[in-house]
């Protein structure tokens, strides 16, 4: 390694060491790692580009590692007046989980996907797996809650590829989709009502664990699927959701599923939700459940032109 290159690498190491001395906590530990890398490059004779990159990175972001380094590394998230994370807004999952929760190749009705389930595959009971395969074969017509624009259920309504809006108050959150029944998530400490009632969306009662909203959802019917590939549940479904801000415009959504009639053990899925920030974007109700009756409507979409007399009348 030439002397000028050694000098640049050594200078980078010295600059990082100076910044580390002024930092604390995680910032100091991170800078200590960068210092070790720079020193190692200077001793081993690696190219100047790597050390120069470290030095440039340090110069551009040195303010991050000052006295306020710890605070600046934590992404700011919106909060309500009482300090809780604020989930208000219009959100949507764009990862394609609704096509199939499990890994799958491309087919005529779905693009390929890596799946969103921890462990990749759902732990079906033997008899339930046979039912799932029947659903898959008949999926073009059998996915009633989607094809008829009924309520999609939980957790499917969260990762279905359509926007939904959250309205948040201290005592609850209301989740409104473009079709189907709005959902209420109670955060007032109340318990599930004595049932069973067999709700399409279950009954949702939540608590806070730090900045994560943990929602216990119980008392379902068996009318909905988990995706459009025939993955399903029974009326014994129990869901525990975890809603967490990754930053101001991104949420991580996790759902742990229990259903002793269908699965051999609990399993967890995870998806990312993006906030809609387009200009003038709004949630628009989708009356898709009425489309099969369009031919019977008394009015046409094209309005007749007014007659000459009507045009002349003030």
SSE series: HHHHEHHHHEEEEEEEEH
Q: Let me know the number of strands.
A: 9
Q: Structural class from helices and strands?
A: alpha+beta
Shape: globular
- Read across the widest sheet, the strand sequence of neighbours is 1-2-3-4-5-6-7-8-9
Strand percentage, roughly?
15-25%
Fraction of residues in H or I helices? 25-40%
What value does the average pLDDT take? 83
Distance between the termini: 92 Å
Instruction: Please outline the major beta sheet.
Output: 9 strands, mixed, barrel
Total tally of structural domains = 2
Cα-atom Rg, whole angstroms? 27 Å
Give the low-confidence spans: 46-71
- Tally the helices: 9
SSE diagram, text form:
Blueprint: H1 3-22, H2 25-44, H3 48-61, H4 69-72, E1 89-93, H5 126-137, H6 139-142, H7 144-147, H8 156-159, E2 164-169, E3 172-177, E4 183-186, E5 203-209, E6 212-218, E7 238-247, E8 250-258, E9 267-275, H9 308-312
Helix pairs in contact: 1-2, 1-3, 2-3
In brief:
The protein has 314 residues and is α+β, with helices and mostly antiparallel strands. The chain has helices at residues 3-22, 25-44, 48-61, 69-72, 126-137, 139-142, 144-147, 156-159, 308-312, and strands spanning 89-93, 164-169, 172-177, 183-186, 203-209, 212-218, 238-247, 250-258, 267-275. The protein folds into two domains: 3-72; 89-279, no CATH class.
Would you give an account of this structure?
The protein has 314 residues and is of the alpha+beta class. The chain has two domains: 3-72; 89-279, no CATH class. It is 28% helix and 20% strand. It has helices at residues 3-22, 25-44, 48-61, 69-72, 126-137, 139-142, 144-147, 156-159, 308-312; strands at residues 89-93, 164-169, 172-177, 183-186, 203-209, 212-218, 238-247, 250-258, 267-275. Strands 1-2-3-4-5-6-7-8-9 form a nine-stranded mixed β-barrel. α2 runs antiparallel to α3. The longest helix is centred in the first third of the chain and has 20 residues, at 3-22. The N and C termini lie far apart (92 Å). Residues 46-71 have low confidence and may be disordered.
